[in-house]
Design a protein that fits this description.
Three copies of one chain form a homotrimer. With 321 residues, the first copy, chain A, is of the alpha/beta class. Chain A has two domains: 79 residues, MurE/MurF, N-terminal domain (Udp-n-acetylmuramoylalanyl-d-glutamate--2,6- Diaminopimelate Ligase, Chain: A, domain 1, 3-Layer(aba) Sandwich), CATH 3.40.1390.10; 171 residues, Hexapeptide repeat proteins (UDP N-Acetylglucosamine Acyltransferase, domain 1, 3 Solenoid), CATH 2.160.10. Chain A is built from three helices and 36 strands. In chain A, the strands form five sheets. The first copy, chain A, has a twelve-stranded mixed β-sheet with strand order 6-8-10-13-16-21-24-27-30-33-35-36. Chain A has a ten-stranded parallel β-sheet with strand order 7-9-11-14-17-22-25-28-31-34, with no helix packed on it. In chain A, strand 3, helix 1 and strand 4 form a beta-alpha-beta unit. The first copy, chain A, starts with a strand and ends with a helix. The interface between A and B is large, with 54 and 63 residues.
């Protein structure tokens, strides 16, 4: 299931009981080596077994069972999943929950204390809603969703197997107004947020409803904590947005776009599928599919690296070194 | 009311029933063109009518009714407001709300489920307080305010027509202490937050109470999501702070200052009225009224652009191009 | 107690009744001068007394009692503490709180409205838990902690005298998965968050539980609002993280590290004790103990300043100045 190949057939009989990181793993634990930075810790590890790429297998301490794979972290992930399967939802309905009479909440859902669910809202099967979460009127949620505590949802349509971490705000009006010295003129926001299946939304992340069109998060996209998604943003499938990323209104990302921490995108951009944006970059222009960019403003990654080196050299010269 | 001029008198009889963006608008919808980027979408639009500036009117498809105005977005905003007027507050008091006996809550307010209102707090007329919001003791709120769900308010004085989006935190103690290796010495924070009339606070935004003086947000200022406002910050009227802006303690902004996404201001600065700060900039020094700045550290915008061009040229040279 | 020396013995009899900032202080107030920027305000101040360093004492207005100290802000902090002592916790248990029968909550705690406390959770003496806060199963909290309203805690072990401001999220699963085009493979997160004694966590800050190891925040560390702390991060004692800082997974900071606003750290770094990171910096590499760095990517502070000056000169040249 983890897709790894045992490098030592004889050791197949060893008993592995848990997963653990390199430093703390013992003889009954399986671990992994993914980052060359940790090669020394690998060599010193007491782990009974480890997922590792072939090229680093010779750094293993004697006696360690090696599970050689091209993707040690993925193999480890699957192993952790099997050791720590997600708990099933135990049907529950807190007496303190306030559920509108017109909402539909299947009996196999777990509805936490003080949850508030508005008129006409529909939940799928086996959803868990954390304590003190507020779900507005007319929200639709698919099957097997996990909505954590203290979340606010409104004006949104949510697929199946979606995970929303605590404190996320999804569906509030976006930042829409026409600036005017006599008083900015607000534009009523009338679109929705659509979260496709398998989306994961981080803690205290905010996703505004569309202004007229919808804000859309594509299937399997992973969004970390404290991320800001403006109105009408469209994300494709499998995107990865790390903590504190911000995306301004009406910017569209293709599929499998990866953005490092604190990246910002201005509005109305088109970022092609497979683009990778280095942490802290400011994307002010469209990005080609598959491009890797970094810097402020973001430029091709290798050009950015060259600019950094040039500046460094100039600074050294001035220093007489 | 929208201030536009019909470019084709004969078409005045056409029936417009809704508003919509360029791409999805049909013959019964009014739309707008504001950004030249969307000229092609304008030409292809099936909208029955559009607000547009005179210079782009000739890009319209045949048959579209043109509402020519110098400010198409503002005219559109007003039109959306008339199609989608803000819902009036329906008086309501949730049985689950816990309102201190000394608080004053007019009967025409809507108090959501599990709302908690502390001692001596005063609400104005027609306020709506979202579910699971906590309002501490001694808070004063004006008329016609909309406080969303899961908000926390304390130590604050709020004007009329103020909007607070879900998860905002207003009035908690600021980050005040004297660093000390033997244990940082905290400074009790004893000021308030004052939000003037017509202020709009984004989702999960945080505004700390003053340390002794107050933290003040001026009339009509719009603050987006996940913005951090430190203690003693003073913002003038009509400022616009985009998502994830951060302002350190005791910095003052004048009126109508605009800051793009992820801009940071260090503490104790003075930023003049009408200043504009490009997205992602780091403002480490005072900014003159009316100045436009960008970069890290922020410098005059045109100088920043020149620096970017110079670096680019140097990088190209090294590349032998 | 404030450690200052009275510069004018005769004036020791003056009655000081309150603390106040330079601008608003009157004859019965004590104030302080810490930042040379405010020397003019100091000279104009009507304060009855002021903490000040010796070098600036001659800028005082006539008649002001001077409390000369090398650390005016710290002395002022202690004075404010004595004028405004922290309120003691008044034992209280809201009828609306839902406390699992297996949780232990001492009678001297204050448990706010709608608080939810899970199975097996243990609170120390004299803790205050704000309204609508949710504490998951198995959490342990020491004595004299102040957890504000609308907070979410899970999978964490918290020391004594810890302060958590409103909306903080502590202990949710981190951003752990192996990227895969066929669907990112999530890694179950099984570690905890450990907050040592005297830690202070800002409003809407997020701290993820460890993936297997724990996420650890050292004794006396101060964390401002909207900060993101990834899984397995380890912070030493007395660190200061200003607003909107982000730390990616598995990065370790030593003791007394200071990071300005909006600083970002990528993952798996080692930052030495006493390092200082200028606001907005992006730390992509390990930082030596005691180093001061700034810029994107972060480099030694003086080199960064030199690079900024060089670019500025080049831009001026091109301009013909």
């Amino acid at each position: 299931m983890s897709g790894a190949r045992l490098s030592d057939g004889a050791a197949g009989g060893r008993m592995i009981e848990d997963v653990a990181p390199l430093e703390t793993a013992g003889p009954a634990d399986v671990t992994f080596l993914d980052n060359r930075k940790y090669t020394e810790a690998f060599t010193k590890s007491r782990a009974g077994a480890a997922f590792v790429i072939a090229a680093l297998a010779d750094k293993a301490p004697p006696g360690m069972v090696l599970l050689v794979t091209e993707e040690p972290y993925k193999a480890f992930a699957r192993t952790v999943q099997s050791f720590y399967p997600q708990e099933e939802v135990t049907p529950f309905r807190a007496a303190s929950a306030v559920i509108d009479g017109t909402a539909k909440v299947p009996a196999d859902c777990a509805i936490g204390e003080n949850v508030v669910i508005g008129a006409g809202t529909l939940l799928g099967a086996r959803c868990a809603i954390g304590a003190n979460t507020v779900i507005g009127a007319g929200v639709e949620i698919g099957d097997d969703c996990r909505i954590a505590a203290n979340v606010t949802l409104s004006h949104c349509l949510i697929g199946s197997r979606v995970v929303v971490h605590p404190g996320a705000r999804i569906g509030q009006p976006g930042f829409g107004f026409a600036p005017d010295a006599a008083g900015h003129v607000k534009v009523p926001q009338i679109g929705r947020v659509i979260l496709a299946d398998d989306v994961d939304i981080g803690a205290n992340t905010t996703i505004d409803r569309g202004s007229g069109p919808d804000t859309v998060i594509g299937q399997g996209t992973m969004i970390d904590n404290l991320v800001q998604i403006g109105h009408n943003v469209v994300l494709g499938r499998g995107c990865i947005l790390t903590g504190q990323v911000g995306i301004s209104g009406s910017t569209h990302l293709g599929d499998f776009v990866m953005a490092g921490g604190q990246v910002g995108f201005t509005g109305h951009l088109r970022v092609g599928s497979g683009a990778r944006i280095a942490a802290k970059a400011a994307v002010f222009r469209d990005v080609e599919p598959g491009a890797t960019v970094g810097g402020i403003p973001a430029i091709p990654f290798t050009t950015w690296m060259r600019e950094i080196a040039i500046l460094q050299r100039l600074a050294r010269k001035k220093d007489g070194r």
